[in-house]
Design brief:
This protein is α+β, with helices and mostly antiparallel strands. It is about 35% helix and about 15% strand. A two-stranded parallel sheet has the order 1-2. Strand 1, helix 2 and strand 2 form a beta-alpha-beta unit.
């Protein structure tokens, strides 16, 4: 019933509570989003995925190389 978009430095610091579905758009790792350090993004996604009811992933084929997207997904869930 509610959507929270985590796409800037401030929202990466917010706490999420209750039940939720995590929808990862992997283009958060695109060049345009480099103003947020990669390690912060990885850490937040890992934390959120551990507590979510369900995780969906959009590999964003029009925004980034798909091999890079697959590599990032592997890094998130290693």
């Amino acid at each position: 019933s509610d959507a929270k978009i985590i796409d800037n430095r401030n929202t990466f610091e917010e706490k999420i509570s209750g039940e939720y579905v995590l929808d990862i758009d992997i283009d958060i790792f695109s060049v345009e989003m480099n103003y947020i350090p990669e390690e912060i993004k990885l850490q937040k996604i890992r934390e959120l995925s551990k507590h979510s009811k369900l995780v969906t992933i959009a590999t964003s084929p029009y925004f980034m190389d798909q091999q890079q997207a697959i590599t990032l997904i592997q890094r998130i869930f290693q």
